[in-house]
Amino acid sequence: MRFRTLNRRHVLAGGAALACLVKLARPAHATPEAMAAAIKEATGAAAVRDGRVKIDIPPIAENGNAVPLTVTVESPMTAGNHVKSIFVFSERNPAPDVVRFHLGPRAGKPVVSTRIRLASTQTIVAIAALSDGTFWRDQAKILVTLGACVEGE
Questions:
Q1: Could you tell me if residue 153 is inside a domain?
Q2: 17 in a domain, yes or no?
Q3: Mean pLDDT for each 10-residue chunk of the chain (153 residues)?
Q4: The pTM is what?
Q5: R_g over Cα of the chain
Q6: Dist. CA 124–CA 98, nearest whole Å
Q7: How far apart are CA 137 and CA 55, in angstroms?
Q8: Which CATH number fits the domain that encloses residue 100?
Q9: Burial class, 102, CB count within 10 angstroms (exposed 0-12 / middle 13-18 / buried 19+)
Q10: Ramachandran quadrant class, 52 (left: phi over 0; alpha: psi -120 to 50; beta: rest)
Q11: How far apart are CA 72 and CA 112, in angstroms?
Q12: Do the domain assignments include residue 133?
């Protein structure tokens, strides 16, 4: 019986093969169920009502690398009545929890803007946590023709 001696080349090739297998075994994107679980974690399973939140995102994104997103919440932003947090979730990105903004009564207007990466056509959900303990939401469907954030994730 003949045994092979492991050399540096064999170890490196085996490590590269193992890395490829790990990459293939992991899902490429989140699922609607994963998004629902992330929302439940953010809200503590509290009831989330429709309204008071408005998502402004283009209906079609030719490139998912930098999609403009603005979330506006109806709130007077006083010490007793203000937006505490704004959460944005995606249905099909590698991670469903896209961004979290934390605000206070001194924030002025409850409006946040950013650019996000989107992997594919999906639904985006924005949830606002208010100081009275209520949660409000809006959602928007966006068609992405050239996906992003799939490589290297």
A1: no
A2: no
A3: 61 54 48 90 94 97 93 95 96 92 93 94 96 97 80 48
A4: 0.77
A5: 21
A6: 9
A7: 9
A8: 2.60.40.2470
A9: exposed
A10: left
A11: 7
A12: yes
